Amino acid sequence: PSRPLILGLESSCDDTAAALVDGERNILAQRVTGQNDEHAPYGGVVPEIAARAHSERLTPLVEAVLEEAGIALADVDAVAATAGPGLIGGVMVGLVTGKALAFASGRPLIAVNHLEGHALSPRLADETLAFPYLLLLVSGGHTQLLFVEGVGKYRRLATTIDDAAGEAFDKSAKIMGLGYPGGPALEALAKTGDPRAVPLPRPLTGSDEPHFSFAGLKSAVLRAWQQDDPPAAADLAASFQAAATDCLVDRSRRALVRVPEATAFVVAGGVAANGAIRAALKALAAEFGLPLVAPPMALCTDNAAMIAWAGVERFRLGLTDPLDAPARPRWPL
Ligand code: KG4
Ligand code: ZN
């Protein structure tokens, strides 16, 4: 492998992950295990269950990636672990594991902001992607527009004032009895429905500040579903998806107008798997003469390769952290 060789750990939500990434963008090994089965009965992530699962799984995953890559712990240049934001129990498991590995190997710790991992992940996938770019991060936990000007230079242009977009998909799917996580099931159902069948709100669209809001949309889905004469599930799913897409496009357009220096419009996060949303964002990017860059799904959803890569970028700039670096459940970029 080329240098620096970084071991990355991720455990801030419901995915436990470890990965080894080098300075030439090679992912030498990576493992991710989700917890959908554990949380499905509750329709959402239960923090205590997540923390226990992380603590059982993380160390075996680290051993597995080192073995698969044929790398000894002493050969890594640094250990990068997510230090926040996220569910505190899981963050602590990953950060403490990272500290122990750093101490044992005598290598530095890099305490990575999970959002920075997402923000830089497109550069792991695409070596031609240069700063600055506008990133739309849309997942079950985040809905943000970040102007990425360089490593450590992020300008948050928008965030959600209530639910994340993926959360709105999951909650709407739950209302319609589609299971958890509901995004993929809702998209599949929407394919057979009429997106104009049910009139739904597009919260905040047209407003000057490019923030997001999805709680009102979800409530409207609930009201429509609980009517005496409810719409067909496929029509409600299609109408919801169209409304959510309109919100993402309108808010992103507002942000793109503000950053004419952007060289690309990048989308990351689990919701970026949605075909209708991707198509709409691609058309939006074209309005501004920009390419839409979407990293492969394995790098878009929570993973440790993006944490290791953020570690590579930080290590090169000499940005390492002391072993008493705090776990930060809330940590804006
Ligand atoms: O990035 P991700 O794995 O991280 C977390 O937030 O944990 O994103 C998961 C989210 C879930 O809310 C899921 O419902 C949503 O992404 N999602 C989708 C689709 N696939 C996943 N939402 C809409 N359409 C999809 N095809
Ligand atoms: Zn994430």
Automatic annotation (TrEMBL):
It catalyses: L-threonylcarbamoyladenylate + adenosine(37) in tRNA = N(6)-L-threonylcarbamoyladenosine(37) in tRNA + AMP + H(+). The keyword Acyltransferase applies. Required for the formation of a threonylcarbamoyl group on adenosine at position 37 (t(6)A37) in tRNAs that read codons beginning with adenine. Is involved in the transfer of the threonylcarbamoyl moiety of threonylcarbamoyl-AMP (TC-AMP) to the N6 group of A37, together with TsaE and TsaB. TsaD likely plays a direct catalytic role in this reaction. InterPro entries: ATPase_NBD, Gcp-like_dom, KAE1/TsaD, TsaD. Belongs to the KAE1 / TsaD family. GO terms for cellular component: cytoplasm. This is tRNA N6-adenosine threonylcarbamoyltransferase. Its cofactor is Fe(2+). It comes from the Bacteria. It comes from Pacificimonas flava. Fe cation binds at H114, H118, D302. The keyword Magnesium does not apply. GO terms for biological process: tRNA threonylcarbamoyladenosine modification. It is found in: Cytoplasm.
